[in-house]
Amino acid sequence: MAKKIFVTGVGTEIGKTFCSAIICEALAADYWKPLQAGNLEDLDSLWVRDFVSNKNIVLHTERYLLSEPMSPHAAARLDGVDISLDDFEPPETDNTLIIEGAGGLMVPLNDKGDMIIDLIPRISDETILISMNYLGSINHTLLSVEVLKQRGIAIKGIIFNGDPNIETEEVILSNTGVPCLGRIPMADSDLKEFIHEQAMKIRSNLL
To answer: 66 lies in which domain range?
Structure first.
């Protein structure tokens, strides 16, 4: 059975799409972003398509496209949409499926109290957590891991995206016991080439 991996972050603007592209490249996987809020003229799925070298990548259609770049529950309300957990059904594929979330774990999907973390076990087998080194990232990352563990959601590992801070990363890894799948530095070359290079570096950790 094809594995379904949910990519989430310790917050927004952490690099989930960028890292999802790297993971798709590494595993020659399909990509699905079930919910996108805002930026509908430049979908994250199209960005992944443009920067992944694998021309056979399958981009599965979003379940919800919301017009405003807001928390899904608020964007859905403005668009007159009612988001339900029962409406999400992973696309059929024999390939590994990378599923990119929206925002962080505790982002609300609707006014009934459903959040991204409630969606994850319904549509995926395990989670990759994207972290980034900034003031407060230790707290945000430890809290994210803690709530995933409390919910019994399998964590494949953490990817650190952006400028490295080894001391911060060691604190996170030692306190969580979660493996580091990779450290992605700031891009310093052609982005498509860079994504391929980084994918090959972390591929063995993802298998």
So the answer is: 4-206
